[in-house]
Amino acid sequence: MPPTVDSLQHNYCRNKLCDRFGQPPDEVRWCRNGEVDRYEAVAVGSSALRSCTCKEQTSLASSLAVVAERDRLPALMAALSGDPCGNEECANQGRNALLHPDLN
Asked: Which domain of life is it from (predicted)?
């Protein structure tokens, strides 16, 4: 199971009708008779997780990669929104890169 990063655990059941929806697993083990309150590995060495409640499976994802992408996107969106360069030493300071494609 990929570890939690910055309090984010991206691996959980995505079935909105499942009792485990959005709840990361405390531990992953094989479902046993009548035990429906946890997750199981789909197969030994598998990169998928299955809810013992609804039996839906989801691919495991690296929480570290999700956090890195979360942290990367605001800077990317600011650049795409047309915010001008804020560096006072930059020759293009105050010029919108979307309006001036020659700056790219």
From this structure: Bacteria
